[in-house]
Amino acid sequence: MTLAEPIPELSVVRVSGQQGTIVHVHRNGEAYEVEFSNPSRVDTVLAREIQAVVWVPPDN
User: Fold this and answer.
1) What is the pLDDT along the chain (60 residues), one digit of tens a residue?
2) How high is the pLDDT of residue 5?
3) Taking Cα atoms as reference points, which of 3, 4, 5, 10 lies closest to residue 60?
4) Which residues are bridge partners to 15 per DSSP?
5) What is the DSSP string of 2-60?
6) At residue 17, what are phi and psi to the nearest 5 degrees?
7) Contact assessment for residue 30 and residue 47, using Cβ atoms and an 8 Å cutoff
8) Is the alpha carbon torsion for 41, 46, 48, 53 positive or negative?
9) How far apart are CA 60 and CA 51, in angstroms?
10) 55 CB contacts (<8 Å, ≥6 apart)?
C-alpha cells in the first residue's frame, strides 16, 4: 500500500491485531514508532505492517 502522505502523529492504528498510537514518523512515512499499552512498549513498524487506521486527530 502506498499512501499519498504519512499518517499523522497521535493517530490510532491497528498492527498485528493490536491498537496503538503513532508517536513518531520516520522517513516521510516509511516507518512509524507506535506505542502499545498491553504490554506497554514502543515498536518501530513499517508502513506495510499497518492493517488499519482507526482514528486520525483533527487538524489544528
Assistant:
1) 556 789 999 999 999 999 999 999 998 899 999 999 999 999 999 999 999 999 999 984
2) 86
3) 10
4) 18, 50
5) --SSPPPTT-EEEETTEEEEEEEEEGGGTEEEEEEETTEEEEEEEGGGEEEEEE-PPP-
6) 80, 5
7) yes
8) positive
9) 26
10) 11, 12
